[in-house]
Amino acid sequence: MLWRLLVSSVRPYWSLLLGVVVFQLGQSIANLYLPTLNADIIDNGVAAGDIGYIWRLGGWMLLLSFFQVACTITAVYFGAKIAMRVGRDLRGQIFGRVASFSEAEVQRFGAPSLITRTTNDVQQVQMLVLMTCTLLISTPFTAIGGVIFAIQQDAKLSWIMAIAIPILLVIVVTIVSRMVPHFRRMQVRIDGINRVLREQLTGIRVIRAFVREGQEEDRFADANALVTESAVKAGRLMASMFPLVMLVVNMGSVAVMWFGADRINNGEMQVGALTAFLSYLIQILFSVLMATFLFVLVPRASVAADRIGEVLETETSVTPPRGGGATVPAAGEVVFDNVTFTYPGAEQPVLADISFTARPGTTTAIIGSTGAGKSTLINLIPRLYDASGGTVSVGGVDVRDAELESLWSRVGVVPQRPYLFAGSVASNLRFGKPDATDEDLWDALAIAQGEDFVRSMPEVLDSTIAQGGTTVSGGQRQRLSIARALVRRPEVLIFDDSFSALDTATDARLRAALSKEVTDATVIVVAQRVSSIVDADQILVMEDGRIVDRGTHAELLESSATYQEIVSTQLRAEEAA
């Protein structure tokens, strides 16, 4: 997977890669000719006392050195551009793929793992690309050229290279193969530490409210210890590699000096040739050493590439229709026809035999006990999930045959847990309609009963909202979330238990404003409080994933035992309060 990912990522930048290869080749050629020139100076210039010869070859060596430096700088510059662009592209591809996922795929991977794959895993691959462009390309040129030039200097000493190079390769391959499992565990454990940290930051108020700081510190320490354990084990192997490599390099140098000195003493070799041979041997062995740096990155990058590929190769279960799909008409009638839904891997369906019609200009309420399947039901309308059986249609078009952008533009959802983005009040309200005017924002805020508190904020619509909306109260966050959906004026307006954070008086005013201002939309309300749905045109009572009763508030009070129990329980709670 690693090499396939690298090839596909680098392919768009073949011109830059060609430049890297050319300049790395130039650097290697200059590097290989320098020891030969140095040997000629020693054997033919210094030995003969020819100062002119020394100056001429010295000048060529100086020019080659400048040429080598220029090639190195240019190659590294091009390599860095390739690496940064590959990282940018991979992050964009992962984000685009994740954005297309349904809830099923997001839950399968988990938010902490997706964050790690987009950041840390991409960084590992990006670093490998950088090291490949700066080391891997020049290393084979230098190693192969070094062998050829060394043999030209003295073939009888080449047996030292024939022994040293295989030993180095065995050491590197053995250690790298043992590092792979540790890096694989490390990436999984980084997911774990990200998950713990994310939970603690999100739930800091709960942690403090229940005085759980000590226990959470222990939980983070355990996750941190697991990452440290994997990192230490991999680090020990990495640390053992370089001393062993240097031992082989130094032993090879000693062998060249030992046997080379004997050949010089016998008149079979010149001093300059020995110096050049030693330089080439060191170049060859250090090329292997430089490749070792790359091999150290390969195991971790390989694991990261597998995790990135897993995301990129995962197809969303909510696939867009072929041919672009049908356009959803303005009429927002919602029809469930014998719908069944089962979560992936679950044994029993969450929803079964769901059939009802919600018409424009009417309000359909859904009520039931916790776990009855209310939120799952409304998630089928904007295709956060696809029904396992039956059909869900909006405006007469099956949502599975509808063009996704057209479907989503017709549906406005106020989620059960409102989320605001970092920015201003205005930027959050314009999230669904970027071209909305200030007048549109104030109209939506007036309906959502949020106008008063927004006008009291220091900078009104430009007031800062922190990530998650933590700078406003829960009720204010809920009203801003409702206003955000209203700004779009969608044909289908879904409230997923969106009034629970509001007091009874605000709830009543908001519902009155909705009935007066939002007259053409199909309104679907999931509620816990009976008081929030007494005026609904139809109420669906759900139990164990089925609709057990339906009708108006008055009709259900007479005919539905389940609804009567809900009403009586809430009335007793209100009387007790």
Ordered list of secondary-structure elements with their pairings:
Blueprint (H helix, E strand, L loop, with lengths): L1 H9 L3 H33 L4 H50 L2 H7 L1 H26 L1 H16 L4 H45 L1 H6 L3 H53 L5 H42 L21 E8 L9 E8 L4 E6 L5 H6 L9 E6 L2 E2 L5 H7 E4 L8 E2 H5 L8 H10 L3 H5 L8 E2 L8 H14 L4 E5 L7 H14 L4 E5 L11 E6 L2 E6 L1 H7 L1 H16 L1
Parallel strand pairs: 3-10, 3-11, 6-9, 9-10
Antiparallel strand pairs: 1-2, 1-4, 4-5, 7-8, 11-12
Helix pairs in contact: 2-3, 2-6, 2-10, 3-5, 5-7, 5-10, 6-10, 7-9, 7-10, 9-10, 14-16, 18-19
What can be said about this structure in brief?
By secondary structure, this protein is α/β, with parallel strands linked by helices.
Number of domains: 2
Average pLDDT over all residues: 83
Number of strands: 12
Q: What overall form do the CA principal axes indicate?
A: elongated
Euclidean distance between termini CA atoms: 62 Å
Which structural category fits the helices and strands? alpha/beta
CATH architecture of the largest domain: Up-down Bundle
Low-pLDDT segments: none
Which short descriptors sum up this protein?
single chain, 577 residues, alpha/beta, ABC transporter transmembrane region fold, Rossmann fold, 2 domains, six-stranded mixed β-sheet, 19 helices
